[in-house]
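Sharing a chain and its predicted structure for anyone who wants a worked example. Both blocks are below, sequence first, tokens second.
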Amino acid sequence: IGLLLLMITCAMLFALPAVVSADDDDSDEEQSEQEQPAEVVQGPEKEALEALEKVIKSLGKLPRAKDAKNERLIELEDQLEEIRHQWPETSSAHEALAYRSECQRRLGRSRPAREGYLAYLDEDLGADATPLALHGLGHCLQETLEWQQALQRFEQVPRRFPDHSLVPECLYDAGYCQREMGKYELARSTWNRLIAQHPSKSS
């Protein structure tokens, strides 16, 4: 029995370093995984993203004069269409669809804008352009007096993207739809929410 215990003790002593070594290996693997840098966008995805970001920046700095603004919107619409044709398999091509629709809406071409917004939202990935598409589609639906449908789009923006810059405008638009539907108490409640949450935007 004494010999058997001695053999078991020796076996445990020899096995112990292997166990510790395995734990160390796991720790090294975990550390290596944590230290891996974020995936860098390369190739067509990078080129498409750079082109899209350039258009988005220009869209936020339109001329004030109506004719100059419309001319610039047409140029941006063409650039967005080029992104969709040149890099069709990229995520930026999908985002470009929403921004192209936004250009069309601002140019007063509601029908193609509406179709584009719907096509974009059919594959809603919750991406950066989703609030823009919901807001734009809501306005297209307002133009055809589809108040309930428009309201549903406007209400999604503060619910899904509470920190987005379009939230105040969507709250105002939602209240407007409710008022047009005869739901005056709901409209008042929505506008009170706008005033309470975004006082600087509601004046």
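Comments welcome. Residues 1-23 have pLDDT under 50 and may be disordered.
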